[in-house]
Specification:
The complex is a heterodimer of chains A (about 300) and B (about 150). With about 300 residues, chain A is mainly α. In chain A, about 45% of the residues lie in helices and about 5% in strands. Chain A contains 13 helices and four strands. Chain A has a two-stranded antiparallel sheet with strand order 1-2. Chain A has a two-stranded antiparallel sheet with strand order 3-4. In chain A, a hairpin with a 2-residue loop joins strand 3 (about 200-205) and strand 4. Chain A is extended. Chain B folds into two domains: about 1-35; about 45-145, Rieske [2Fe-2S] iron-sulphur domain (Rieske Iron-sulfur Protein, 3-layer Sandwich), CATH 2.102.10. Helices cover about 20% and strands about 30% of the residues of chain B. Chain B is built from one helix and eleven strands. The longest helix of chain B is centred in the N-terminal third of the chain and has 29 residues, at about 1-30. Chain B is elongated and about 85 Å long. The chains are: A mainly alpha (about 300), B alpha+beta (about 150). The interface of A and B includes residues 18, 59 and 66 of A.
């Protein structure tokens, strides 16, 4: 009798084992499928065809599928954007009208001084370089602090994509008096002088002390702003824009005058404010401050000796 | 009928246990081949071909020599095959300052403790016109890249 019960138990265990093994096998199959069905694979397949279509047969043959990345520990760059944005360095060979994400990067005048393999993508465009699918790379999920500076984000701020990107150019170029191609930031820098902001505010140890220090204004979190008097979008960018136009309305107790400036000037200044951040890029990435009057004075000074 | 079903079940059971086991080993083995690593790429760019003068040019950043003869280019590693010191070009041969290995102009060992010749790396022209080196793939001695549309 006991023997029979043992046998039935054994049969029951065996059935469980079969079931669990099948479930495990199914999970392994799903895992394998997920490993293969990646977001970048179809684009890489298409890019190979694009290369062949453009007559670059050898490059097409050499093209190996896989995650691609630009890695630079000096800037903390691990940019896998190039797993899908495959045409980025093919400007001049592949047509500029190629659809995204395969479109070649526009050959802007400063690109030879900012080579891709040294700068990567995210130092200028922001976004999440580690991600290997478009949504995570571009948007990164709710509350992500460094969303990609897209055309849509720029339109929401009332500036062009190129103007929005200048904010990040100024991370390194903040001590330039003016920088070629950074018109919005250049305008803001002249306004800072023209409106004599440093009478009250201080920046990098210079200026007055009757108003908040603005050295790292761009590092402030949205929680540090009072949005209760903001009419438009409740973003830090828009807070700055409305505050530059009518400081008294946004912060009723402020001593800052209402500058009532045109919106494009207010937006340029807002970009400048957001660009003033604490960054820890190595010094070789920071351009030497332009010292035009000093270099003119140096030969005269040395001739006195 | 009953025995047939039992046999099928047993086959299915053993088969799936075996398949799951194989898959498990496969997954563990796959972990040894990551998709990407946090390390410098083995394929990197040098300068425009026109930048390099005739003869041997040392690239300190990537520790290699770019050798140009007219429009033909090849690249030889500057890492000694003995213990990895950087070899120096002495006009006719490469000398290793650490243990005195000597290599001829093509990287073959003349004397010293170095066990192997200096490898030649595969080179090509990147889409933006720069010389590109693949340090992961060695090419046989004597291979070279001819840059046709070159003006000096």
């Amino acid at each position: 009798m006991a023997e029979r019960r043992d046998q039935s138990l054994e049969r029951q265990d065996f059935a469980w084992l079969v079931l669990m093994s099948l479930i495990f096998f199914g999970l392994v199959a799903i895992g394998l499928w997920r490993e293969y069905a990646t977001a970048w694979r179809p684009w890489q397949r298409e890019f190979k065809l694009v290369l062949a279509h453009a007559g670059r047969f050898q490059d097409a043959r050499k093209f190996q599928p896989g995650i691609r990345q630009i890695w630079n520990p000096e800037l903390g760059v691990v940019d896998r954007c190039v797993s899908c944005h495959l045409g980025y360095e093919w400007g001049g060979i592949l047509p500029a009208a190629l659809r995204q994400p395969l479109t070649p990067h526009p050959n802007l005048s400063f690109m030879n001084r900012h080579p891709f393999d040294r700068f990567g993508c995210t130092p200028c465009h922001a976004g999440q370089g580690w991600a290997t699918n478009a949504h995570a790379a571009h948007y990164g999920g709710g509350g992500w602090e460094e969303p990609m500076l897209s055309r849509r984000l720029a339109a929401g701020c009332g500036v062009s994509e190129a103007e929005l990107l200048q904010m990040r150019c100024n991370f390194c170029h903040r001590r330039d008096r003016s920088t070629q191609g950074m018109d919005a930031i250049n305008l803001a820098k002249t306004l800072i002088k023209k409106k004599k902001c440093l009478i009250c505010h201080s920046v990098e140890g210079q200026g007055g002390h009757s108003a908040p220090d603005l050295t790292y204004e761009g590092d402030k979190d949205p929680e540090q702003f009072d949005f209760s008097h903001i009419a438009g979008a409740r973003t830090v960018f828009n807070w700055h824009v409305e505050h530059f136009i009518a400081a008294g309305k946004v912060s009723p107790k402020t001593a800052m005058p209402d500058y009532d400036m045109p919106p494009d000037q207010a937006r340029a200044l807002a970009l400048l404010m957001l660009s003033w951040r604490h960054i820890n890029y190595p010094p070789q990435y920071i351009p030497q401050p332009q010292s035009a009057p000093q270099t003119a004075a140096t030969p005269a000074a040395s001739s006195n000796h | 009928m009953d025995t047939d079903r039992r046999r099928l079940l047993r086959w299915l059971g053993k088969g799936s246990v075996f398949a799951a086991f194989v898959a498990q080993i496969g997954a563990a083995a796959r972990a040894f081949f990551p998709n990407v690593l946090y390390e410098p790429p083995t394929t990197f760019k040098l300068k425009q071909p026109a930048f390099y003068p005739q003869g041997y040019t040392f690239d300190a950043e990537h520790r290699l020599f770019v050798i140009r003869a007219e429009a033909r280019f090849h690249v030889i590693s500057a890492v000694c095959t003995h213990l990895g010191c950087t070899v120096q070009w002495r006009g006719t041969e490469f000398d290793c300052p650490c243990h005195g290995s000597r290599f001829d102009a093509n990287g073959n060992v003349i004397s010293g403790p170095a066990p192997r010749p200096l490898p030649w790396f595969e080179i090509s022209i990147a889409p933006d016109g720069l010389l590109e080196v693949d340090s992961a793939s060695a090419v046989p001695e004597g291979s070279s890249l001819t840059v046709a549309t070159e003006k000096t």
